[in-house]
Design goal:
By secondary structure, the protein is α/β, with parallel strands linked by helices. It has helices at about 10-40, 80-90, 95-110, 120-130, 135-150, 165-170, 200-215, 220-225, 240-245, 245-260, 275-285, 290, 300-305, 325-335, 340-345, 355-360, 360-365, and strands spanning about 175, 185-190, 225-230, 265-270, 295-300. About 50% of the residues lie in helices and about 5% in strands. InterPro entries: CRAL-TRIO_dom, CRAL-TRIO_dom_sf, CRAL/TRIO_N_dom, CRAL/TRIO_N_dom_sf.
Protein backbone atom coordinates (compact mmCIF):
# COMPACT_ATOMS: atom_id res chain seq x y z
CA UNK A 1 0.00 0.00 0.00
CA UNK A 2 1.43 3.44 -0.86
CA UNK A 3 2.76 5.47 2.04
CA UNK A 4 0.69 8.49 3.01
CA UNK A 5 1.60 11.69 4.72
CA UNK A 6 -0.96 12.07 7.50
CA UNK A 7 -0.75 15.85 7.36
CA UNK A 8 -1.56 16.02 3.65
CA UNK A 9 -4.80 15.77 1.71
CA UNK A 10 -8.45 15.94 2.63
CA UNK A 11 -9.01 15.38 6.30
CA UNK A 12 -5.28 15.52 7.09
CA UNK A 13 -5.70 17.64 10.21
CA UNK A 14 -8.40 15.38 11.54
CA UNK A 15 -6.29 12.31 10.82
CA UNK A 16 -3.29 13.74 12.70
CA UNK A 17 -5.40 14.56 15.75
CA UNK A 18 -7.16 11.23 15.84
CA UNK A 19 -4.02 9.20 15.22
CA UNK A 20 -2.16 11.04 17.98
CA UNK A 21 -4.88 10.30 20.52
CA UNK A 22 -5.29 6.68 19.52
CA UNK A 23 -1.59 5.92 19.42
CA UNK A 24 -1.16 7.14 23.01
CA UNK A 25 -3.93 4.83 24.16
CA UNK A 26 -2.68 1.92 22.02
CA UNK A 27 0.80 2.21 23.53
CA UNK A 28 -0.49 1.24 26.96
CA UNK A 29 -2.32 -1.78 25.54
CA UNK A 30 0.77 -2.86 23.60
CA UNK A 31 2.96 -2.67 26.71
CA UNK A 32 0.48 -4.79 28.64
CA UNK A 33 0.34 -7.37 25.83
CA UNK A 34 4.13 -7.59 25.77
CA UNK A 35 4.25 -8.09 29.54
CA UNK A 36 1.71 -10.89 29.19
CA UNK A 37 3.70 -12.47 26.38
CA UNK A 38 6.82 -12.55 28.55
CA UNK A 39 4.87 -14.17 31.38
CA UNK A 40 3.55 -16.80 28.95
CA UNK A 41 7.05 -17.68 27.82
CA UNK A 42 7.04 -16.09 24.40
CA UNK A 43 5.31 -13.86 21.90
CA UNK A 44 1.98 -14.30 20.20
CA UNK A 45 1.65 -17.71 18.61
CA UNK A 46 -0.13 -17.49 15.28
CA UNK A 47 0.77 -20.98 14.16
CA UNK A 48 3.84 -22.53 12.58
CA UNK A 49 4.36 -21.33 9.00
CA UNK A 50 5.30 -23.88 6.40
CA UNK A 51 8.39 -23.70 4.26
CA UNK A 52 6.97 -20.94 2.10
CA UNK A 53 5.43 -19.04 5.01
CA UNK A 54 1.87 -19.40 3.68
CA UNK A 55 0.88 -23.09 3.69
CA UNK A 56 -1.58 -24.23 1.07
CA UNK A 57 -3.38 -27.43 0.26
CA UNK A 58 -3.04 -28.98 -3.13
CA UNK A 59 -6.09 -28.06 -5.22
CA UNK A 60 -6.88 -31.16 -7.26
CA UNK A 61 -9.85 -29.53 -8.98
CA UNK A 62 -7.81 -26.96 -10.90
CA UNK A 63 -9.70 -24.11 -9.25
CA UNK A 64 -13.13 -25.29 -10.34
CA UNK A 65 -15.79 -25.34 -7.60
CA UNK A 66 -17.67 -28.42 -6.52
CA UNK A 67 -21.19 -28.54 -7.89
CA UNK A 68 -22.72 -29.00 -4.44
CA UNK A 69 -20.54 -26.62 -2.45
CA UNK A 70 -23.21 -23.92 -2.14
CA UNK A 71 -25.29 -25.97 0.27
CA UNK A 72 -25.61 -24.19 3.62
CA UNK A 73 -24.12 -26.69 6.04
CA UNK A 74 -21.19 -27.43 8.29
CA UNK A 75 -18.84 -30.30 7.56
CA UNK A 76 -18.91 -32.03 10.95
CA UNK A 77 -17.48 -35.35 9.76
CA UNK A 78 -13.91 -36.56 9.68
CA UNK A 79 -11.62 -34.47 7.46
CA UNK A 80 -10.74 -35.70 3.98
CA UNK A 81 -7.43 -37.46 3.43
CA UNK A 82 -5.73 -34.37 1.99
CA UNK A 83 -6.68 -32.37 5.10
CA UNK A 84 -5.45 -35.19 7.34
CA UNK A 85 -2.16 -35.19 5.42
CA UNK A 86 -1.94 -31.42 5.80
CA UNK A 87 -2.53 -31.73 9.57
CA UNK A 88 0.22 -34.32 9.87
CA UNK A 89 2.64 -32.26 7.79
CA UNK A 90 1.92 -28.76 9.14
CA UNK A 91 0.60 -29.37 12.67
CA UNK A 92 2.36 -32.60 13.59
CA UNK A 93 -1.01 -34.28 14.18
CA UNK A 94 -1.15 -38.07 14.50
CA UNK A 95 -3.43 -40.37 16.48
CA UNK A 96 -0.71 -40.91 19.07
CA UNK A 97 -0.04 -37.18 19.40
CA UNK A 98 -3.76 -36.43 19.78
CA UNK A 99 -4.24 -39.07 22.46
CA UNK A 100 -1.23 -37.96 24.48
CA UNK A 101 -1.72 -34.19 24.24
CA UNK A 102 -5.45 -34.30 24.94
CA UNK A 103 -4.76 -35.95 28.28
CA UNK A 104 -1.85 -33.63 29.02
CA UNK A 105 -3.99 -30.57 28.29
CA UNK A 106 -6.89 -31.85 30.39
CA UNK A 107 -4.53 -32.58 33.31
CA UNK A 108 -2.90 -29.15 32.97
CA UNK A 109 -6.28 -27.39 33.10
CA UNK A 110 -7.20 -29.23 36.30
CA UNK A 111 -3.79 -28.83 37.93
CA UNK A 112 -3.24 -25.14 37.20
CA UNK A 113 -6.82 -24.05 37.81
CA UNK A 114 -6.45 -20.87 35.74
CA UNK A 115 -9.75 -21.36 33.91
CA UNK A 116 -12.96 -23.33 34.16
CA UNK A 117 -14.11 -24.25 30.63
CA UNK A 118 -17.76 -25.13 30.06
CA UNK A 119 -16.56 -28.38 28.48
CA UNK A 120 -13.61 -30.73 28.82
CA UNK A 121 -14.43 -33.36 26.19
CA UNK A 122 -12.02 -34.32 23.40
CA UNK A 123 -14.03 -32.61 20.63
CA UNK A 124 -13.78 -29.31 22.49
CA UNK A 125 -10.14 -29.50 23.57
CA UNK A 126 -8.76 -30.69 20.22
CA UNK A 127 -9.54 -27.35 18.58
CA UNK A 128 -7.14 -25.56 20.98
CA UNK A 129 -4.38 -28.10 20.35
CA UNK A 130 -4.76 -27.84 16.59
CA UNK A 131 -4.63 -24.05 16.69
CA UNK A 132 -1.34 -24.24 18.59
CA UNK A 133 0.20 -27.12 16.62
CA UNK A 134 -0.17 -29.53 19.56
CA UNK A 135 2.07 -27.47 21.83
CA UNK A 136 0.30 -28.23 25.12
CA UNK A 137 1.58 -25.17 27.01
CA UNK A 138 0.45 -22.80 24.27
CA UNK A 139 -2.86 -24.62 23.90
CA UNK A 140 -3.41 -24.19 27.61
CA UNK A 141 -2.65 -20.48 27.38
CA UNK A 142 -5.10 -20.22 24.49
CA UNK A 143 -7.94 -21.84 26.39
CA UNK A 144 -7.21 -19.62 29.41
CA UNK A 145 -7.34 -16.56 27.13
CA UNK A 146 -10.56 -17.87 25.56
CA UNK A 147 -12.25 -18.24 28.95
CA UNK A 148 -10.92 -14.90 30.21
CA UNK A 149 -12.13 -13.12 27.08
CA UNK A 150 -15.65 -14.40 27.70
CA UNK A 151 -15.56 -13.26 31.32
CA UNK A 152 -14.10 -9.85 30.47
CA UNK A 153 -16.66 -9.15 27.73
CA UNK A 154 -20.04 -10.41 28.94
CA UNK A 155 -21.79 -7.82 26.76
CA UNK A 156 -20.96 -9.84 23.63
CA UNK A 157 -21.36 -13.33 25.09
CA UNK A 158 -24.33 -13.38 27.44
CA UNK A 159 -28.04 -13.50 26.62
CA UNK A 160 -27.31 -13.66 22.88
CA UNK A 161 -30.13 -14.64 20.53
CA UNK A 162 -28.49 -15.49 17.19
CA UNK A 163 -31.77 -15.81 15.28
CA UNK A 164 -32.75 -12.27 16.23
CA UNK A 165 -29.64 -10.67 14.74
CA UNK A 166 -30.89 -10.65 11.17
CA UNK A 167 -30.28 -6.93 10.81
CA UNK A 168 -26.55 -7.68 10.44
CA UNK A 169 -27.42 -9.65 7.32
CA UNK A 170 -30.05 -7.19 6.12
CA UNK A 171 -27.42 -4.44 6.12
CA UNK A 172 -24.86 -6.71 4.39
CA UNK A 173 -22.22 -5.92 7.02
CA UNK A 174 -21.10 -9.51 7.61
CA UNK A 175 -21.48 -12.50 5.34
CA UNK A 176 -20.12 -16.06 5.09
CA UNK A 177 -20.24 -17.70 1.66
CA UNK A 178 -21.34 -21.34 1.74
CA UNK A 179 -18.39 -22.21 -0.52
CA UNK A 180 -14.75 -22.14 0.52
CA UNK A 181 -11.50 -21.01 -1.08
CA UNK A 182 -9.81 -23.34 -3.56
CA UNK A 183 -7.78 -24.67 -0.61
CA UNK A 184 -10.79 -25.49 1.52
CA UNK A 185 -10.84 -22.53 3.90
CA UNK A 186 -13.94 -20.66 5.04
CA UNK A 187 -14.23 -16.98 4.14
CA UNK A 188 -15.71 -14.22 6.30
CA UNK A 189 -16.50 -10.94 4.55
CA UNK A 190 -16.95 -7.61 6.33
CA UNK A 191 -18.34 -4.53 4.61
CA UNK A 192 -17.96 -1.94 7.32
CA UNK A 193 -19.04 0.88 5.01
CA UNK A 194 -22.56 -0.60 5.12
CA UNK A 195 -22.66 -0.36 8.91
CA UNK A 196 -24.36 2.70 10.40
CA UNK A 197 -22.84 3.22 13.89
CA UNK A 198 -25.90 5.30 14.83
CA UNK A 199 -28.14 2.29 14.22
CA UNK A 200 -26.29 -0.25 16.38
CA UNK A 201 -22.98 -0.42 18.18
CA UNK A 202 -19.76 -2.19 17.30
CA UNK A 203 -20.60 -4.73 20.01
CA UNK A 204 -23.36 -6.07 17.76
CA UNK A 205 -20.80 -6.82 15.06
CA UNK A 206 -18.66 -8.59 17.64
CA UNK A 207 -21.66 -10.70 18.64
CA UNK A 208 -22.27 -11.74 15.03
CA UNK A 209 -18.58 -12.47 14.55
CA UNK A 210 -18.34 -14.70 17.60
CA UNK A 211 -21.46 -16.62 16.60
CA UNK A 212 -19.92 -17.31 13.18
CA UNK A 213 -16.59 -18.30 14.70
CA UNK A 214 -18.14 -20.61 17.27
CA UNK A 215 -20.16 -22.34 14.56
CA UNK A 216 -17.27 -22.46 12.10
CA UNK A 217 -14.86 -24.02 14.58
CA UNK A 218 -17.19 -27.01 14.87
CA UNK A 219 -15.73 -28.14 11.54
CA UNK A 220 -12.60 -30.27 12.07
CA UNK A 221 -11.12 -29.06 8.78
CA UNK A 222 -11.61 -25.44 9.86
CA UNK A 223 -9.71 -26.23 13.05
CA UNK A 224 -6.88 -27.57 10.92
CA UNK A 225 -6.84 -25.12 8.00
CA UNK A 226 -7.99 -21.91 9.65
CA UNK A 227 -9.97 -19.23 7.85
CA UNK A 228 -9.62 -16.25 5.53
CA UNK A 229 -11.05 -12.77 6.12
CA UNK A 230 -11.93 -10.09 3.58
CA UNK A 231 -12.42 -6.53 4.78
CA UNK A 232 -14.15 -4.49 2.10
CA UNK A 233 -13.71 -0.90 3.29
CA UNK A 234 -15.58 0.87 0.50
CA UNK A 235 -17.66 3.66 1.98
CA UNK A 236 -16.06 3.88 5.43
CA UNK A 237 -16.02 7.33 7.02
CA UNK A 238 -14.58 9.01 10.09
CA UNK A 239 -17.75 7.95 11.92
CA UNK A 240 -16.49 4.40 11.57
CA UNK A 241 -12.92 5.31 12.50
CA UNK A 242 -14.05 6.90 15.76
CA UNK A 243 -15.60 3.60 16.86
CA UNK A 244 -12.28 1.75 16.50
CA UNK A 245 -10.72 2.59 19.85
CA UNK A 246 -7.62 0.79 21.10
CA UNK A 247 -9.89 -1.31 23.30
CA UNK A 248 -11.91 -2.40 20.27
CA UNK A 249 -8.70 -3.09 18.36
CA UNK A 250 -7.46 -5.22 21.22
CA UNK A 251 -10.69 -7.27 21.12
CA UNK A 252 -10.31 -7.80 17.38
CA UNK A 253 -6.72 -8.96 17.78
CA UNK A 254 -7.74 -11.27 20.61
CA UNK A 255 -10.30 -12.99 18.38
CA UNK A 256 -7.91 -13.25 15.45
CA UNK A 257 -4.78 -14.28 17.34
CA UNK A 258 -4.75 -14.96 21.05
CA UNK A 259 -8.20 -15.81 22.42
CA UNK A 260 -10.03 -17.99 19.93
CA UNK A 261 -9.19 -21.50 18.66
CA UNK A 262 -9.12 -20.69 14.96
CA UNK A 263 -6.09 -19.70 12.92
CA UNK A 264 -6.30 -16.65 10.70
CA UNK A 265 -4.71 -17.79 7.46
CA UNK A 266 -4.91 -14.46 5.62
CA UNK A 267 -6.58 -11.04 5.81
CA UNK A 268 -7.37 -9.24 2.56
CA UNK A 269 -8.05 -5.50 2.63
CA UNK A 270 -10.07 -4.01 -0.24
CA UNK A 271 -10.85 -0.38 -1.11
CA UNK A 272 -8.76 1.12 1.67
CA UNK A 273 -8.65 4.92 1.94
CA UNK A 274 -7.10 7.57 4.14
CA UNK A 275 -9.76 6.76 6.74
CA UNK A 276 -8.34 3.25 6.88
CA UNK A 277 -4.94 4.75 7.73
CA UNK A 278 -6.49 6.11 10.91
CA UNK A 279 -8.01 2.77 11.81
CA UNK A 280 -4.94 0.71 10.94
CA UNK A 281 -2.66 2.92 13.02
CA UNK A 282 -4.45 1.52 16.07
CA UNK A 283 -4.13 -2.11 15.00
CA UNK A 284 -0.60 -2.21 13.63
CA UNK A 285 1.29 -1.88 16.95
CA UNK A 286 -0.69 -4.86 18.29
CA UNK A 287 0.35 -7.18 15.45
CA UNK A 288 3.59 -9.11 15.53
CA UNK A 289 5.68 -9.57 12.39
CA UNK A 290 4.18 -12.95 11.51
CA UNK A 291 0.64 -11.60 11.68
CA UNK A 292 1.52 -8.54 9.61
CA UNK A 293 2.77 -10.85 6.86
CA UNK A 294 -0.71 -12.36 6.63
CA UNK A 295 -2.30 -9.00 5.70
CA UNK A 296 -2.60 -8.13 2.02
CA UNK A 297 -3.72 -4.78 0.59
CA UNK A 298 -5.46 -4.81 -2.78
CA UNK A 299 -7.29 -1.49 -3.08
CA UNK A 300 -9.70 -1.89 -5.98
CA UNK A 301 -7.45 -4.30 -7.87
CA UNK A 302 -9.35 -7.57 -7.99
CA UNK A 303 -6.60 -9.22 -10.05
CA UNK A 304 -4.39 -8.79 -7.00
CA UNK A 305 -6.99 -10.53 -4.83
CA UNK A 306 -7.29 -13.34 -7.38
CA UNK A 307 -3.63 -14.22 -6.87
CA UNK A 308 -4.72 -15.48 -3.45
CA UNK A 309 -8.33 -16.57 -3.97
CA UNK A 310 -9.50 -17.96 -7.28
CA UNK A 311 -12.43 -16.14 -8.97
CA UNK A 312 -14.24 -19.50 -8.90
CA UNK A 313 -14.40 -19.08 -5.13
CA UNK A 314 -15.33 -15.41 -4.85
CA UNK A 315 -18.56 -13.40 -5.09
CA UNK A 316 -19.27 -11.66 -8.38
CA UNK A 317 -18.70 -8.20 -6.90
CA UNK A 318 -15.04 -9.14 -6.40
CA UNK A 319 -14.54 -10.35 -9.94
CA UNK A 320 -15.69 -13.84 -9.03
CA UNK A 321 -18.37 -16.13 -10.40
CA UNK A 322 -20.39 -16.94 -7.30
CA UNK A 323 -23.44 -15.71 -5.45
CA UNK A 324 -23.42 -14.68 -1.80
CA UNK A 325 -25.41 -15.70 1.24
CA UNK A 326 -26.95 -13.25 3.72
CA UNK A 327 -25.86 -13.77 7.32
CA UNK A 328 -29.35 -14.57 8.55
CA UNK A 329 -29.80 -17.41 6.02
CA UNK A 330 -26.64 -19.01 7.33
CA UNK A 331 -27.94 -18.93 10.90
CA UNK A 332 -31.48 -19.95 9.90
CA UNK A 333 -30.30 -23.04 8.05
CA UNK A 334 -27.90 -24.18 10.75
CA UNK A 335 -30.61 -23.81 13.39
CA UNK A 336 -32.37 -26.76 11.79
CA UNK A 337 -29.51 -29.18 12.55
CA UNK A 338 -29.91 -30.89 15.96
CA UNK A 339 -26.19 -31.29 16.65
CA UNK A 340 -25.51 -27.62 15.90
CA UNK A 341 -28.41 -26.39 18.03
CA UNK A 342 -27.13 -28.54 20.87
CA UNK A 343 -23.70 -26.91 20.50
CA UNK A 344 -25.29 -23.46 20.50
CA UNK A 345 -27.12 -24.25 23.73
CA UNK A 346 -23.92 -25.53 25.34
CA UNK A 347 -22.22 -22.25 24.44
CA UNK A 348 -24.96 -20.35 26.24
CA UNK A 349 -26.85 -18.98 23.25
CA UNK A 350 -30.60 -18.55 23.58
CA UNK A 351 -32.51 -20.73 21.11
CA UNK A 352 -36.25 -20.03 20.57
CA UNK A 353 -38.49 -22.52 22.32
CA UNK A 354 -40.34 -23.38 19.12
CA UNK A 355 -37.08 -24.59 17.54
CA UNK A 356 -36.30 -26.72 20.55
CA UNK A 357 -39.76 -28.22 20.37
CA UNK A 358 -39.41 -28.94 16.66
CA UNK A 359 -36.10 -30.71 17.13
CA UNK A 360 -37.43 -32.54 20.18
CA UNK A 361 -35.54 -34.89 22.40
CA UNK A 362 -32.43 -34.92 20.21
CA UNK A 363 -31.53 -31.48 21.55
CA UNK A 364 -32.11 -32.26 25.20
CA UNK A 365 -30.11 -35.52 25.29
Amino acid sequence: MPQRNESDGIGGGVVAAVVGRLRDEAREILLERRRSAVEDGGGIDVGKPSRDGMPELKDDRGGEPLVDDEEVCLDLGEPSQDVIDYARRELGETDDVKCRTLQELRDMIYERGECLPRRMDDDFLIRFLRTRNFNVNRAHRLIVNYCNFKEEHPEIHQDIRPLEMKYIGDDDVVSVPPYRTQCGRRIMIYRLGNWDPRKYSVEEIFKATIIILELGVLEPRAQILGGTVIFDLEGITMAHAWTITPQVANMVIALMVSAFPMKTHAIHILHQSWVFDVMFSVFKPLLDARMQKKIFFHGGNMDSLHKHISPFHLPKRYGGTREELPYYKWIDNLSKVPQIVKEMKQLGYIVPEEILQQLGQLIED
